From TrEMBL:
Biased composition range(s): Low complexity: 29-46
Organism: Leptomonas pyrrhocoris
One GO cellular component term: nucleus
CDD domains xref list: Arginase-like_1
Keywords tagged on the record: Hydrolase, Manganese, Metal-binding, Signal
Gene3D superfamilies per UniProt: Ureohydrolase domain (3.40.800.10)
Name of the protein this chain belongs to: Arginase
Upper taxonomic lineage: Eukaryota, Discoba, Euglenozoa, Kinetoplastea, Metakinetoplastina
Length: 372
């Protein structure tokens, strides 16, 4: 996660119609049980609902991941899948749509699903109001409280967070830290940036989660973290060239760091050593997609096609590829119990721009004539 300019607010209007488009492929996520209409699947993988006038598509390819049988499900621990479309933490409206798209693309689940209520950008006065040096402070506190309340309501053993910006991890991971406070609970933060700041450093709350989870930073967030994580049981992996203020907090808090070169050249070795040395038995993992190289994956902040030249100068970019992340996660999962996993900061610039392009095509857009 990084800090964003006011230019990003031009994307606010994409949300309403994009979420409408996703409704055909995204189930309602506020209930713990689901019912679906009978469907038939064509050879092309298109699912046609028996409900008149609706059609949905299989986004997982011709062979989607198998669903667990009822018998197998009873042997599994309860995993809550939580859609958390936070965007006020990073002040970038496109994060909201990114969370919805991520929810639509994620493999099917048999477990409970829920969504944190976040006011969408098109219903929010922009620019966001700054309170006590923090953009959208009351809104961020409210969504964090809501996320914790949802977690307590479901009381899951494990949580998957489909964010939004990085602030989305703070509430759910604080719940897990408290649930497993009698265990050696650790936090693995896969990110090009450490997210250890506070309002004295920067005004956007998506730069605060790691510090707040350790009980450091602004009291409005810290007071909601009931069981702070010791700094030695926090590792930021994939980060490089931290700023002076980032490095100061890392040193002060005792956070462990694993650079991208170590992961590329030595796999999970450094992370596994940390897990062994700290005796970590339960682990929450955060995956900020900006830990990936924008050379190989384009749905990142740095991939904004309208960003002026030099806009991201001096900001560290991710250096990993999918294969590095998946290999590391397999190794880690074999050595400790992963109880939390969050994915954040998917920014589908091309999807948005292509959607806007379709609006400019005759016949494709029923309202095309009105635009002439």
């Amino acid at each position: 996660m990084r800090s964003f300019s006011a230019k990003a607010f031009s994307y606010a209007r994409l949300i309403a119609s994009s979420v409408t488009c996703l409704a055909a492929v995204t189930p309602t996520t506020t209930a713990t049980s689901e019912t679906t209409a009978p469907t038939s699947t064509s050879a092309a993988g298109t699912q046609h609902s028996s409900t008149t006038g609706t059609m949905s598509y299989n986004l997982h390819g011709p062979n989607p991941p198998p669903m667990l049988s009822a018998a197998a499900k009873t042997k599994e621990k309860k995993t809550l899948r939580l859609t958390y479309p936070s965007w006020q933490g990073g002040t970038l409206p496109l994060y909201h749509f990114g969370s919805q798209l991520l929810t639509a693309l994620a493999p099917p689940t048999n477990g409970p699903v829920a969504q944190v209520t976040v006011t969408p950008p098109e219903l929010t006065p922009l620019p966001l109001k700054k309170t006590k040096g923090i953009n959208a402070l009351p809104e961020n506190v409210a969504t964090m409280e809501s996320a914790i309340a949802v977690c307590k309501q479901h009381n899951p053993d494990n949580i998957v967070v489909l964010g939004g910006d990085c602030f989305a991890e703070l509430g759910p991971f604080s719940y897990l830290a408290d649930k497993y406070k009698k265990e050696k609970f650790g936090l693995l933060w896969l990110d090009a940036h450490p997210d250890v700041l506070n309002s004295k450093d920067w005004c956007n709350a998506h730069t605060y989660p790691v510090g707040a989870l350790m009980g450091k930073g602004d009291k409005e967030f810290v007071e909601l973290v009931k069981s702070p994580i010791p700094g030695s049981r926090v590792m930021v992996a994939g980060m490089h060239h931290p700023s002076k203020r980032d490095q100061r907090h890392i040193d002060d808090y005792g956070v462990r760091v694993c650079g991208p070169d170590s992961i590329v050249n030595n796999g999970a070795a450094e992370v596994l050593k940390w897990i062994k040395d700290e005796g970590i038995t339960h682990l929450a993992i955060h995956l900020d997609l900006d830990v990936l190289s924008d050379k190989y994956f384009r749905m990142l902040y740095f991939s904004d096609p309208d960003a002026p030249e030099g806009a991201h100068k001096g900001v560290p970019r991710g250096q990993l590829r999918f294969k590095h992340v998946t290999s590391l996660l397999k190794a880690v999962s074999a050595k400790t119990q992963v109880v939390g996993f969050g994915i954040t900061e998917l920014l589908p610039w091309d999807v948005y721009n292509f959607r806007e392009f379709l609006k400019e095509l005759p016949l494709v857009n029923p309202n095309y004539a009105a635009k002439l």
